[in-house]
Design brief:
It contains 2 helices and 5 strands. By secondary structure, it is α+β, with helices and mostly antiparallel strands. It has a 5-stranded antiparallel beta sheet with strand order 1-2-3-5-4, with helices on one face.
Length: 109
């Protein structure tokens, strides 16, 4: 499968990884829209929110908890979480990702 984010998970494409566990990876966005702009992704390839199945509901909850964990580790005072869905929703990469932005976003990704 030719998926950029799967290649980042497999370390076939370099990235600046800030968090990793057995189910998720978080790394810095290559084109940051805020002083802190991370992408948190499940290691399971899910194309978008529109492709999430009932069996993924625990994973989706854990995705939010990973964001909270990173925010706590970095002592963030506030942050935004964003998921784009589909081309019309601004999604460019077809591997589900949660944007974590903190510190005055210049624009929404
Ligand atoms: P989307 O628009 O799909 O919600 O967000 C995709 C994000 O991936 C964009 O913010 C974009 O800057 C980021 N991105 C695209 N290609 C790469 C890459 O090769 N490495 C990293 N770290 N981020 C990327
Ligand atoms: Zn993928």
């Amino acid at each position: 499968m030719d998926c950029l984010f799967c290649k980042i998970i497999n370390k076939e494409v370099p990235s600046n990884i800030v968090y990793e566990d057995d189910r998720f990876v978080a790394f810095k966005d290559i084109d940051p829209k805020a002083p802190l702009h991370l992408l948190i992704i499940p290691k399971k390839h899910i194309a978008s929110i529109d492709h999430v199945e009932v069996e993924d509901k625990t994973l989706m909850g854990e995705l939010i908890l990973v964001a909270q964990k990173i925010a706590r580790e970095k002592s963030l005072k506030g942050y935004k979480l964003l998921i784009n869905v589909g081309r019309e929703g601004g999604q460019i990469i077809d591997h589900l990702h949660l944007h974590l932005l903190s510190g005055r976003p210049t624009e929404l990704p």
